[in-house]
From TrEMBL:
Gene3D superfamilies: ATP-grasp fold, B domain, Phosphorylase Kinase, domain 1
UniProt GO MF annotations: ATP binding; phosphoribosylaminoimidazolesuccinocarboxamide synthase activity
Protein name: Phosphoribosylaminoimidazole-succinocarboxamide synthase
SUPFAM superfamilies linked: SAICAR synthase-like
Top-rank taxon, per record: Bacteria
Class of this enzyme: ligase
Pathway: Purine metabolism; IMP biosynthesis via de novo pathway; 5-amino-1-(5-phospho-D-ribosyl)imidazole-4-carboxamide from 5-amino-1-(5-phospho-D-ribosyl)imidazole-4-carboxylate: step 1/2
Gene Ontology biological process: 'de novo' IMP biosynthetic process; cobalamin biosynthetic process
Catalytic activity: 5-amino-1-(5-phospho-D-ribosyl)imidazole-4-carboxylate + L-aspartate + ATP = (2S)-2-[5-amino-1-(5-phospho-beta-D-ribosyl)imidazole-4-carboxamido]succinate + ADP + phosphate + 2 H(+)
Database matches in InterPro entries: SAICAR_synt/ADE2_N, SAICAR_synt_PurC, SAICAR_synthetase, SAICAR_synthetase_CS
Keywords, sorted A to Z: ATP-binding, Ligase, Nucleotide-binding, Purine biosynthesis
Domain SAICAR synthetase/ADE2 N-terminal: 6-223
Length: 233
């Protein structure tokens, strides 16, 4: 496969065209807008690959094809649905001031929210009627997205629990393949999740992992250690 021109550059990764019109290459960067952390790109690439493979095994289709190198992965070209899907298990972040729940309140059932991906509007929260009005997706597509989002939560929550980590909330993005199939796209890494220590409630930013299963110095490495038996570097 030949890597062609740069199509897109975001805070966390670059996306390149290839000689195959259906395939792209995602290249993870060490930086995320601010300071670079050496090795971060490789770890995030591996975490996203491992989690996508786990979700595929559990029946959630994703854009993942194969890992190409330490920081590059081949993905299927998808036409992105311009929505950020946020799933919440515990009140935190923007939810607390919006509906007046104290941070840390465990929700009776997972809450799903839609945000319209629009830089000029600042990614406003919208509801399904707004999404249909703007023709961001069809009702059928949104039904599939909802189902996958809850399913992903049901898979990730117990997996992370096994690491002593509470999955507070996370963000997903979906795309359409050329045949219209909805797949999970973008990335799932500790950069797109809010994670707290399950016992102490300590907020685990991505550079900290106190519980240290096998010498992991951050949450990403702990996830990798668990998924690969330590053979990830
Ligand atoms: P909140 O709405 O509380 O700020 O965010 C909810 C969850 O979605 C958090 O886990 C946050 O990390 C994730 N999230 C929402 N928008 C984005 C985004 O644009 N980029 C990333 N990486 N995560 C996001």
């Amino acid at each position: 496969m030949e890597k062609k021109q740069l199509l897109y550059e975001g805070r966390a990764k670059q996306v390149y065209a290839t000689n195959d019109p259906e395939l792209l290459i995602a290249a993870y960067k060490d930086s995320r807008g601010t300071a670079a952390v050496p090795g971060r790109g490789a770890v995030n690439n591996r975490v996203s690959v491992c989690l996508m493979q786990m979700l595929e095994r559990e029946g959630v289709p994703t854009h993942f094809v194969e890992q190409l190198s330490d920081r590059e992965t081949v993905i299927r070209r998808a036409h992105m649905v311009p929505l950020k899907i946020v799933v919440r298990n515990v009140a935190a972040g923007s939810l607390c001031p919006r509906i007046g729940l104290p941070e840390g309140t465990r929700l009776h059932a997972a809450i799903l929210e839609y945000y319209y991906r629009s830089a000029s509007l600042g990614d406003p929260m919208i509801n399904r009627y707004h999404a249909f009005e703007l023709e961001l997706c069809t009702p059928e597509e949104l039904a599939v997205i909802d189902r996958y989002a809850f399913r992903i939560n049901d898979i990730l929550k117990p997996f992370l629990r096994g690491l002593g980590v509470d999955l507070i909330d996370f963000k997903l993005e979906f795309g359409r393949l050329s045949d219209g199939t909805i797949v999970l796209a973008d990335e799932i890494t500790p950069d797109t999740c809010r994670l707290w220590d399950a016992e102490t409630g300590e907020k685990l930013d991505r550079d900290r992992f106190r519980r240290d299963p096998g010498g992991a110095k951050d949450v990403s490495e702990a996830i990798l250690h668990r998924m690969t038996g330590g053979n990830f570097m």
